[in-house]
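Review box. Two proteins, two foldings.
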Amino acid sequence: MDDHTESEILKTIPYGFYITGVVGPDGEANGFTTCWVSQVSFEPRQVIVAARRDQRTTELLEASGVFSLNFLDTEQEDLARRFTEPVEHEGETVGGAGYATGETGAPLFDDAFAHLECRVAGKMPAGDHDVFLGEVVASNLKRPADILTDLDTQMDYGG
């Protein structure tokens, strides 16, 4: 099978879009759009998130040992796109998006419909990404909503 065929097949796996919130040792909040997320355990509740190894936000995630998953709804493609590029922490916003500080210190973005806060329980290299295992330590559902997926957008991060 050729690379193009493999890529096209992998692109058929549906992914939700989240902003992974991270915080540096000095309190610098930041975040990045991610879609490679999955629950992997019931007891304890654990999720995995993949992060590009060469990003500053991945360095912050690794240094702090905590992260948040901020769930985006089907009307928030613009927010998902904003966090695909480097953004700046400015006062009470990151990339212009307001946030509150969660129990773990990770940012909980105001516009997300739900949040999970996690402590890193493990890390594994995976090609050009690192996979972080996070144990869920806090959660918040602000409102019911349908998650934004790659099927709702022209955004493409697979293959």
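Next protein.
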Amino acid sequence: MLTITTYDWVPDMAKGYVRDLRIRWACHEAGLPYRIESTSLSGKTPQHFARQPFGQVPMLRDGDLSIFESGAILLYLGERHPALMPEGAADRVKAQQWLIAALNTLEPPAMMLAMARWIKQDPAAEGIVLPWLHDRLGQLETVLQGREFIAADRFTVADILMADILRIVDGLGEIAPYPGLKAYQDRITARPAFQQALAEQLAHFAQAA
């Protein structure tokens, strides 16, 4: 059975957004059983750093193999389970491309805005990053016109990454000018696998509290 490592506790604002959600979601889409193990948010052990040199989560253990970074874990699962990746070589490359684009192009300005607005409360930093984020959102809105999914004619791991990052944008109150992105986010997160993964993560942190 797969083992997903997440935190034992997070502040309220992080509940429902910790990145182990992405891995839980993928497992539910593929029908893969998993167990959860917890690590401390503040008191990370040498064993944790041995598996994740930056002390972050999630991590995935599959037998003797330990993997960190949500994108790498999703690619690993996608290569092994047809529910998460298309069969054709061209479509697989497109899914990989859009997964990386979600992580490298959309997530950085979204997370920087979240940091400036929610944690640092830094209006100057917010003013710098907000135009950058909206440039990216406008470009993505154009791409998604006429598409149900981001990378292919079916759901892939790229949709997990893209929709989850758009949830952050929505939480920041910045998705309203982009009805296509909002419709895509709502459509992808309406999937039963996402709803189950979210409920499980929230229950995990509620039990810890």
